[in-house]
Design brief:
The chain is an all-alpha fold. 84% of the residues lie in helices and 0% in strands. It contains 2 helices and no strands. The protein has helices at residues 2-20, 28-62. The longest helix is centred in the last third of the chain and has 35 residues, at 28-62. It is rod-shaped and about 95 Å long.
């Protein structure tokens, strides 16, 4: 029975500490969404630059 009393006190104390600490920072989800968006934008820019470079290289090859 003493073990259950001890366990109850430990859990209650920890929960009280967690409730008291209201400022725990941002969730990692918005940061992950921002990073994913930046990766998609970087891939789009890289693809666009690659296409323009390929067009430019092809135009040089076709020149007389």
């Amino acid at each position: 029975m003493a073990f259950f009393t001890y366990l109850h006190v430990v859990v209650s104390t920890r929960l009280a500490e967690l409730r008291r600490d209201g400022e725990r920072g941002d969730s990692p989800v918005p940061t992950a969404v921002i990073i994913a968006g930046l990766v998609v934008a970087a891939l789009a820019v890289t693809a666009a630059v690659g296409d323009k470079a390929k067009e430019w290289m092809d135009s040089i090859q076709d020149a007389p």
